[in-house]
Amino acid sequence: MLSSIPDPRAIPSVRNPDGDAALASHALSPAALRRRFSLDLPWQPDVVQELQWQQIETWREAAVLIGLVLREEPTLLLTQRSAHVPTHAAQIAFPGGKVDASDHDARAAALREAHEEVGLPIENVRVLGEVGRYTTGSGFRITPVVALIEPPPVFRPNPGEVDAVFEVPLSFIMNPDNHHKHQLNMGDNGEIRRQWWSMPYHDPAQNVERYIWGATAGMLRNFYRFLSAESPLA
Fold it and tell me: Distances from the Cα of 15 to the Cαs of 12, 142, 229, in angstroms?
C-alpha cells in the first residue's frame, strides 16, 4: 500500500510543462460556455484515474459541482474543508460528496451537496453538463458537474464540513501558466511514480494562499482541456 503525500508543496514541480496557451477571456463568457457544452467535440482529459495508493474493496460513486459564479468576471466556487472531517481535511475542494441512494443522479447529488455545504440555493444553479469522470486513488469515482451560478446574497458554509468558501477568477484557472505538475517516485526502488497537478492561488480577500492540488486540480485541468478543444486561445 502506498502512503499519502505528507506535504505536496515540498515536491518539485514543472510549471505549464506542455507549453499550453491560456483561454481567451471571451471564451469564458456564459454564452461561450453554453456553446461549448452544446457541441459534441472530441477532447482528451489529462487525468482519468489516479494511481491506486491503497487497497480498494468497494468503489464509491461521488459527484462535485464545478460552479461558475456569474460575477462581472466569472469565478470558480471552491471550499476549504474543515480540519475535522475524516477525509481530505483542510484541503481545497469543490462542493460535493457521495451519491446517495436518494439522489436521482450525479447532478442531483452535486446540487444537494452544494446546498448542504455552502447554502447554495438550487434555484440559482443552471447545469451545463458533465466533464468526464475522475477516479481517485482512494476509491472514489467522481462525476464533475459544471454549472452557472447566479450569486446568492451570501454563501453560508456548513461549519461541520467547511472552514471557508471562496472564489477564484476563472481566467486564473484557465491559464496553464498557473498549472504545476508534480511527480513523486515511491516504492522500495522508486519504481512507482505518483503524479498530480497543483494551482496555488493567493486569495486577496483573506490574504492567504489557497493551495489547490490533487483531485481538485486534476479535474480543473481536465476542464481546461474540455474548453480548449473548441475555444479560441489568448
Answer: 10, 26, 21
All three cell numbers of 116, joined, read 448542504
- Is 166 within 8 Å of 75 (Cβ atoms)? no
On the CB side of 22, how many CA atoms lie within 13 Å of its CA?
13
Mapping DSSP to helix (H, G, I), strand (E, B) and coil, where does residue 223 land? helix
Dump pLDDT digits (tens) for 114-173.
Answer: 999 999 999 999 999 999 899 988 888 999 999 999 998 899 999 888 999 999 999 999
The C-alpha atoms of residue 209 and residue 161 are separated, in whole angstroms, by 20
Question: What is the fold, at CATH topology level, of the domain defined by 21-228?
Answer: Nucleoside Triphosphate Pyrophosphohydrolase (3.90.79)
* Nine cell digits for residue 70: 456569474
Question: Where do we find the cell 471550499?
Answer: 79
* Total number of residues shown for the chain: 234
CA distances from 3 to 13, 137, 195 (A): 20, 11, 14
- Give the number of other Cβ atoms within 10 Å of residue 10's Cβ: 9
Region 193-212 average pLDDT: 92
Q: What is the C-alpha to C-alpha distance for residues 227 and 230, in angstroms, rounded to an integer?
A: 6
The DSSP call for residue 21 is P
User: Is the predicted pLDDT of residue 215 greater than 90, yes or no?
Assistant: yes
